[in-house]
Amino acid sequence: MATQRMLKFVTVGRQMPEKREAADRSQDFHEIYREFAAAKATEQASRCSQCGVPYCQSHCPLHNNIPDWLRLTAEGRTEEAYLLSQETNTFPEICGRICPQDRLCEGNCVIEQSGHGTVTIGAIEKYITDTAWEEGWVRAITPREERPESIGIIGAGPGGLAAADRLRRLGYQVTVYDRHDRAGGLLIYGIPGFKLEKDVVERRNKLLADGGVEFVLNTNIGEDISFDAIRGRHDAVLIATGVYKTRDLDIDNANARGIVRALDYLTASNRVDLGDEVPDFEDGELNAKGKRVVVIGGGDTAMDCVRTAIRQGAQSVKCLYRRDRANMPGSQREVQNAEEEGVEFIWMTAPGAFEGHVTGEAATAEERDVDGLYGVAAVRVQKMRLGAPDVTGRQSPELIPGADYHEPAELVIKALGFEPEEIPRLWGVDGLEVTRWGTIKAHFQTHRTSLPGVYAVGDIVRGASLVVWAIRDGREAADSIVEYLGSTSRVAAE
User: Fold this and answer.
1) CATH code of the domain covering residue 129
2) Per-residue pLDDT tens over the stretch 177-187
3) Residue 10 per-residue DSSP state
């Protein structure tokens, strides 16, 4: 019976959920994909080949049991499919929306390799969990018994929240500290609503709070409370701060007025979407409306910026990337969505300098910036070509001499990636070892740091990476903390 419901990829074509028309969706920040109806989700799940070696599962950082919950969906057993999906994934409704499935599970689907088109795994995962929320199958944590041990988690992003969920389910007392006024990290302030609507994150945060996780927000470690104080309060500590320091450009006028960091720009937009008052948005500094916008970078953050600028009513949006389309790190699906919405990609280009309006006598002291410029006016664009491969095997971009040109711009957004902040210095911590890149040094399986009882996960260990990797790290670290607390309890008892 199960076999008859599956293996339909030879007769049923691949279909994604209906995508809103570009002209419609580019006017707001709502998600662009409509929901699968139950019949369509069942049909698309039935395309799975149920292969003996499921590459979709092995290429998922969480090793989600994808073939089995696809089969359950195809059989109409949606609640069972949800229960199975959440055994390995703390936030399946979030991963179903923002994971780069084209690079992970779907990109390695066996029937994709055979030319039949991948199973739409991400859309089905989203359908399963959204149905679970609608039907009331997602419930707050109710531990079988309460434990006295306490864990402090620094950072309310996906890694910290995944660990909090797992530890709280086992009855541990969990407190999550974060510098922002809402939990969620980049899920709230970094990822735009058209990819992940904020109520999806906020309902998960509420569920954790209802289950007994304590949130201490608007708290800067090293300022409002010391790291030593947190260690003193808790039996174990998990660092899950992420990386927020933006990489910069070493070129002329890189900090002129109108040249902004991607995270500042996205945070302002998301805060406005959440209903906050944002002065830097209201005065136009972090608002693309009516401006010619240039975004520098080729990763997923750059894609978020270009698509946000379109929705803010930019006059034009262009993206500079120093390699070609095939070599860009961002999701190809996101590039296609951006192009449909009116973004122009200028491949094989890099900024050489920023040109500005020279301030005259009429400009006030407040209007003049340190470089004697008043606002960016254009980007001097350098054309590139691909040369010999670098150590990773990717061809290195090379400058084409004499091929520069000027691209007009009133707003330039730097989406060049992120680096870790100097945690030991900022927090005044002795003995916390870091790598030569500034990330915290932690064991790759247990996530232990050089300090007893202190663990670290996510981007602050890996460098800028994917949400799904942070979730995996958080779950693994929670298990390591449980083992550590168990051993320390035994020692105390002896």
Assistant:
1) 1.10.1060.10
2) 999 999 999 99
3) G
